[in-house]
Design brief:
Length: 127
């Protein structure tokens, strides 16, 4: 029996004021290539079959606020990346252009902001 998802690709689209710049950040952070780039759009994927991140131009973009606050742009989603060494992963992300969030809700997780202000988490799993 053929799976419904057989031969399909999937990904996530992210709004950004500078799609190419944000694609470069995530390509460097994840070690994935930029697979496609055109004005207003850039795609980062580990392989042509995906998964992939599409960064799309967003005029009037407002960065989300973390932690969420009433009346401000809330984070609609965020990425979680598992890492083997939390301190070195945070240092690498910051060197690439991320910013460490002031509010850190968990011991083994670090919330950071990408260059467009989207929050993402680096998660250390001791197992």
């Amino acid at each position: 029996m053929r799976s419904r998802t057989s031969g399909m690709w999937w990904g996530t689209s992210i709004e950004a004021p500078d799609p190419s710049g944000l694609a470069k950040f995530y390509a460097d952070l994840l070690g994935w290539p930029i697979g496609h780039e055109e004005p207003g759009t850039a795609i980062v994927a580990p392989s042509p079959q995906g998964p992939f991140f599409v960064f799309q131009q967003a005029d009037g973009y407002r960065a989300p606020v973390w932690p969420p606050a009433d009346g401000d742009q809330r984070p609609m989603m965020h990425f979680d990346f598992q890492v083997g060494d939390l301190d070195s992963a945070v240092a690498e992300a910051v060197a690439l252009g991320a910013t460490l969030a002031e509010h850190q809700p968990q011991k083994n997780v670090r919330v950071l902001f990408d260059p467009a202000g989207h929050p993402f988490c680096l998660c250390f799993d001791e197992t």
